Description:
Layout: E1 10-13, E2 22-28, E3 37-45, E4 50-55, E5 59-67, E6 69-74, E7 77-82, E8 86-89, E9 94-98, E10 105-113
Antiparallel strand pairs: 1-2, 2-3, 3-10, 4-9, 5-8, 5-10, 6-7, 6-9
Keywords: Metal-binding
Region (Disordered): 1-23
Pfam families: Cupin_2 (PF07883)
Amino acid sequence: MILKNQNEGVKREKLGGSGKGSALSFPVNIPDTNGAFTMTTRLELAPGSSIGYHKHADNEEVYFIMSGKGLYTEENESAEVAAGDIMLCRRGRSHGIENDGSETLVIGAAIAKRE
């Protein structure tokens, strides 16, 4: 299945509930509910912006760093990430990411339900 981006970027603030700054979100609709994935988007975080630390109680999320660099935190352990890195936050765990670089951090993100 190919899911094409049909949307203009949407400015969002406080991503993750407590994120700093703002990001452009380019959500892609998933046309059915038959599979595991419930959401997918591309995010563009300006320098200094973040997706706040949050918990995935009932689902899992994967981030794909497309360009830029950032500081990823999961379960209170942090690591620098850059283009090509993939982070997987399993159900019951908490994570967040901050653009601590000088250029836009572009992330692909997908959330999957877990039964």
